[in-house]
Write a structure and sequence with these properties.
The chain has eleven helices and 20 strands. With 426 residues, the chain is of the alpha/beta class. The chain folds into two domains: 248 residues, Metallo-dependent phosphatases (Purple Acid Phosphatase, chain A, domain 2, 4-Layer Sandwich), CATH 3.60.21.10; 154 residues, no CATH class. The protein has a six-stranded mixed β-sheet. Strands 5-6-7-10-12-11 form a six-stranded mixed β-sheet, with no helix packed on it. Strands 15, 16, 17 and 18 form a four-stranded parallel β-sheet that branches. The longest helix is centred in the first third of the chain and has 24 residues. The chain binds manganese (II) ion. Manganese (II) ion (MN) binds next to loops.
């Protein structure tokens, strides 16, 4: 094995030297010093460790892949303060890159705009883009340019202007590839509706500039956003909440002038969030509840339990629905399943549980009219905006976010209504 591996390595180095491929690691949305929303302190500490572990695994990868540059497309920090521990950690990691001649480039995002990053003592070699004006830097390897990166940062926490449109067109007839880096909201990307419109731009804005690759950040869902050009969101190197499920990591990109970018995802996160459902239909006693949940875990979770922070959506109609929803019962059940299954963390979602109801009760007034109203709201026949308060928990929400939230609340509302109103009648 060893001689072959050496030969491959040698061949690869020769290939790089001849073809002048520009190879880099693309990361975004690390959100260092994030406060994680889980009530278990041990889990919060584990997530913090996992964030550093994922970052240092990415640095290991950059070293073993001999990339030319390490790119971070914004939101390296969760907020404008950087903890002592994080600063020390980052400086150590950037020093490891520098020792291997790998350039470190970081463009700020909406969470860590301009002034925040200036408080940190960055190593001399680190290249920061913390202003909104695009700047182009050459990435050199052994004295010659192997690629160029043009990037801009967010100077303030709210940047409503189209920063991508202010980028110069990529210079033509260059021997080395041209890369652009930006923290931006590209319209039409998966999940973009739920995001603040920070540095909004269109896919066309990216295509027309002529770069070989756009290293994007902001949307945490890994994806290629443009069909006719290489423009990618890597997602974060660690899931930050129950909504950010699945493998998390970084992209290794290889780029040659005039050729399509080669983009490979590498998982680096040691912990992950997952979400599954457990059907409790017709379950009538507590043992049955426990068994149904364990069965759902055994049959649908295909990753190691001790690396998983799991959300289980309990579904179906059961006479125990109200009992299960009682916080004390939910907590006891959570603890039992969590330790029994050896999970890292567990959240039981009970909102979709229903009590079994006899359908004829729906036909009795005023229950019937109430249920019709809920149905009309859900189907869009009745405007959901008419029952929407302007703010939720003091925060203004965009219309799409409000609608999504209210529709989630209305899930199973008919059964709930029948259940409550019937009791009042009898
Ligand atoms: Mn962001």
């Amino acid at each position: 094995m060893a001689p072959r591996a050496c030969l491959d390595r040698f061949a690869q180095d020769r290939y790089l030297a001849v073809m002048r491929a520009f190879r880099f690691l693309h990361m975004a949305d690390v959100h260092f010093d994030r406060s994680f929303a889980t009530k278990r302190e041990k889990v919060r500490a584990a997530l913090r460790d996992a964030m550093e572990a994922s970052f240092s695994t990415a640095v290991d990868l950059a070293l073993s892949e001999s990339v030319d540059a390490f790119l971070i497309a914004g939101d390296l920090f969760d907020h404008s303060e950087c903890s002592y521990r994080t600063e020390r950690f980052l400086r150590t990691q950037i020093a490891r890159l520098e020792e291997s001649g790998i350039a470190f480039l970081y463009a700020t995002g909406n969470h860590d705009p301009g002034p925040a990053t200036r408080r940190i003592s960055w190593p001399d070699g680190a290249v920061l883009f913390d202003r909104g004006t695009p700047r182009r830097v050459a990435i050199e390897r052994e004295g010659r340019a192997v690629g160029h990166v043009t990037a801009a940062g967010h100077a303030r926490s709210t940047t409503g202007e189209n920063l991508a449109a202010t980028f110069p067109s990529a210079p033509r007839d260059q021997k080395a590839p041209e890369v652009a880096m930006l923290h931006a909201t590209v319209s039409g990307s998966l999940g973009y509706a739920g995001h603040g419109k920070h540095a909004p731009c269109s896919q066309g804005d990216l295509i027309e500039k002529g770069y070989g690759y756009w290293a994007l950040g902001h949307i945490h869902l890994r994806q290629s956003v443009v069909e006719d050009a290489a423009a990618h969101y890597p997602g974060g190197p660690l899931g930050l909440s129950r909504r950010e499920t699945g493998e998390k990591g970084v992209l290794i990109v290889s780029l040659e002038p005039g050729a399509p970018a080669e983009v490979a995802f590498h998982a680096t996160a040691p912990l992950r969030w997952e979400s599954i459902t457990a059907d409790l239909s017709d379950v009538t006693e507590w043992d049955g509840v426990q068994r149904a949940i364990r069965r759902a875990i055994d049959t649908t979770l295909d990753v190691p339990a001790n690396e998983t922070l799991l959300t289980i959506w309990l579904e179906g109609a059961t006479r125990l629905a109200t009992e299960i929803r009682h916080p004390e019962n939910t907590d006891s059940l959570t603890d039992e399943i969590l330790y029994g299954a050896g999970l890292r963390d567990l959240f039981l979602e009970t909102r979709r549980l229903r009590r079994p109801v006899e359908r004829e009760r729906f036909l009795v007034e005023p229950i019937h009219s109430m249920c019709e109203l809920v149905r009309a709201l859900r189907s869009g026949d009745e405007s959901i905006d008419s029952i929407t308060p302007p703010k939720f928990a003091g925060e203004p929400l965009d219309p799409a976010g409000k609608r999504e939230y209210l529709l989630a609340l209305l899930e199973g509302a008919e059964d709930e209504l029948v259940d409550r109103m019937w009791k009042e009648r009898s």
